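REQUEST
  id: r-88c1
  op: predict_structure
  target: DoxX family protein
  payload:
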Amino acid sequence: MKFTFLQPWAPQLLSILRILTAATFFSHGAMKLLGWPAPFPYPLNSLTTAAGMLEIVGGVLLAIGLFSRPVAFILSGLMAFAYFMAHAPQGFFPVLNGGEAAMLFCFAFLYIAAAGPGPWSVDAVLGKAK
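RESPONSE
  id: r-88c1
  status: 200
  body:
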């Protein structure tokens, strides 16, 4: 038996994946720089401030689907950098080094960079989603 009943919805589900991932990513930046929805529990430095700015700007752009492929590619790189700088030195397994979110964001953004934003995006409206 083939498990293909969701296949007709794949483009819309890609848009939903992009929107929810971007909104969640935005909240990380908002916490760092705006103290919302809760204060950031660590002191800010130049790296975390730059990451927070990319999380806010990139999160908004990706949520609305504008410049989706290059933004997703940049954010994927940011998360790979974060993983290898902050998490990998604490051990190999992401479940033990606290790096699951960074790893998942990295590969979700890499997929969006390759697959595009989906039909529910500014890029699609402008005809730039191909």
